[in-house]
Amino acid sequence: MRNANIKSGRVVVKVPSSTANLGPGFDSLGMALSLFAWVSMAPAEKTRITLVGDNLQGVAEDKTNLVYEVAQAVFNKAGIELPELDIGIRSDIPLTRGLGSSASAIVGALVAANTLIGQALTDDELFQMATALEKHPDNVGASLFGGIVVAAWDGLRAEYIRIEPPALLDVLVAIPEFELSTKKARNVLPEQISMKDAVFNVTHSSLLTAALATGRLDLLGHAMRDRLHQPYRASLIPGMEKILHEATENGALGAVLSGAGPTLLLLADSENSDKRIIEAFVKKVMDNEGITITTRWLEPCLHGPIVRLVDENDADYKLEPGQLLRSAEAEVGA
Ligand SMILES: Nc1ncnc2c1ncn2[C@@H]1O[C@H](COP(=O)(O)OP(=O)(O)OP(=O)(O)O)[C@@H](O)[C@H]1O
Ligand SMILES: N[C@@H](CCO)C(=O)O
């Protein structure tokens, strides 16, 4: 058993959501977004899990909860026993919509648990664990490091490089009311693709990465095209094909399926794009398909998790986990 430096207070972690793939960078490119989840964690006599807000319906409130399980994986790896936890989770990230809700929960749990045990694991160990749990590094990399992450995982080890997102990039997400699990959206993908389509994706993903790294917003429309996953997923998301094909004619820099979907993501130039036209176009297409969507303008999030250790003996923090998370926005930063 490792000599643990277990913190006595409560850890509160704010984690960004993420979009994966950015079109051709399937399982490789991710970008953190300004929509957040919070995980709070403290050692306890008996495990309690408190869910806050409307976005966590159906999430387990016992020891099968993803956040609890991931925390235990951290303690196991560090050789520390901490079986009972008081956990609070608040999320503004809708579940199973392609905005990395599971990745943010995994990253929040990893960082909170690791903070509780005095940073026993390195950032690299957390990234390797997160990738193995999520099975691809794009969402977890973005939530863990912020900005844009270019990552590759060979099933054993993941490597990444973080890129600072171009300035002046606005992000419209159109979130359908229906859910689409990553599992279902991966099941429609073919086992094999043609050399022609493979070459298309390698070249476009490389161009996209270079365009993002050098701020060439003018190339995004060309570079964000994909033949590896979006064409196969289109049947699951009415309106997607039209939005992807016509986005640039309607003022966007480019449009893609966000992660495994069903959310659609459109990029805009915050100084030169007419955001009203882009949003009206998306709403009209989805309305014609009879799909109800929520639209939100977001920005790339430049930071990974923000961590705060609070002393529960402090009168200000004598709060239930739920209340603490409600005030977490103010405490841990907007
Ligand atoms: N905050 C959370 N706490 C516990 N479990 C969560 C939390 N957020 C997500 N999950 C789990 O993750 C599942 C959603 O994962 P899934 O990969 O299907 O979608 P996603 O992560 O929202 O989308 P994508 O991976 O395409 O971006 C939920 O059904 C739930 O089981
Ligand atoms: N790269 C993954 C992301 C899922 O969130 C996919 O598209 O299946």
CATH architecture of the largest domain: 2-Layer Sandwich
CA distance, first residue to last residue: 38 Å
Unique ligands:
adenosine-5'-triphosphate, L-homoserine
Task: Give the helix/strand class.
Answer: alpha+beta
Q: Radius of gyration, Cα only, in angstroms?
A: 20 Å
Shape: globular
Q: Spans with pLDDT under 50 lasting ≥5 residues? A: 329-334
- Measured by DSSP, the beta-strand proportion falls in 15-25%
Give the tally of β-strands. 11
- The ordered string of helix (H) and strand (E) elements is EEEHEHHHEEEHHHHHEEHEEHH
Total of DSSP H or I helical runs spanning 4+ residues: 12
Major sheet: 7 strands, mixed
CATH topology of the largest domain: Ribosomal Protein S5, domain 2
Mean pLDDT: 92
- The tally of domains stands at 2
CATH class of the largest domain: Alpha Beta
Share of residues in helices: 25-40%
Describe the structure concisely for a colleague.
This protein has two domains: 10-164 and 301-332, 2-Layer Sandwich (Ribosomal Protein S5, domain 2); 169-298, Alpha-Beta Plaits (2-Layer Sandwich), CATH 3.30.70.890.
